[in-house]
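This part of the workshop introduces the protein records we will be handling. Getting from the letters to the tokens is the skill we practise here. An example says more than a description, so a record of this kind follows:
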Amino acid sequence: MNESFELIGESRNIEALRSSIKRLVQRAGGARRPPPVLIQGETGTGKGLVARLLHQSSARSAGPFVDINCAAIPDTLLEAELFGYERGAFTEARRSKPGLFHAAHRGTIFLDEITLLPIGLQAKLLKVVEERTVRRLGATAGEPVDVWMLSATNEHVALLVQERRFREDLYHRLTVMTLNVPPLREREGDVVRLAEHFLNRACADYGLAPRRLSVAARERIIAYTWPGNVRELKNLIEAIFLNRPSRRISLADLPHYFQVWSDGTHDKAPSEQEQLLSALFSTNWNKSKAAQRLHWSRMTVYRKIAKYHLTKQVNELPADV
């Protein structure tokens, strides 16, 4: 499905975010040396979307946009991937290779999950930010790079600084300008707009007749707290769309963990259980990926599944009734 780089919603918090993006681009987006921007928000709120919006709205929109998930690249490869290397820098380096900073020259580089960078690499990144030069592994001199550096995290960076897990000098450089992306539960009215947007887009992409949410389904998705935020909602709508032929999505079409609240007692449901079910549903019951989403260990996920007596059936869409 094609991505749409726009902020969907009319809530007060999302309007405030739009205004902040506009002001930031006006002040910094056209500068010869735009300052770094840190995008903060919970997992699944759309920090990557905000980064793309900043790039597309800036004077650098014709240049490259290089998106890097720091959590997806092993620590042993990160430095070579980011900064490149010269031939012979290590055993497998049979020829020189530019890094991702080089690939983003005259454009924008986006470092997602930046707090997961090893401390040693944080020092080298600080040097790149301050000097605007990159030295490849095995090189004797740096090369100038012209990039707008955007980064994102779902963690409290100031707390990581206090715990000495993130360099204070790099923290101050990255937070020259900041944006905060609100969680879905704080975007009153937007959950239905987003659900209908994802549903309409799926229908258009697959060339099918429009589908709609029933009143009961709307009420339930409004009441749900969405620990996985917009990403969880998008995954849910796509799963329902692909598994349900009906043109009307009812309460019965929602996953089991929505059903158990139908008697009005959903406020008593454990938040921890809700988060676990959400993570399992959105990862197709992949326990390792669910653990990553929740920032738990894999063994913790197994223990919680046993604690709440969860089975894969709670993650499946119910049959027609």
Remarks:
- The domain at 185-315 is CATH 1.10.8.60 (Helicase, Ruva Protein; domain 3).
- The CA atoms of residues 46 and 97 lie 32 Å apart.
- The chain is about 45% helix and 10% strand.
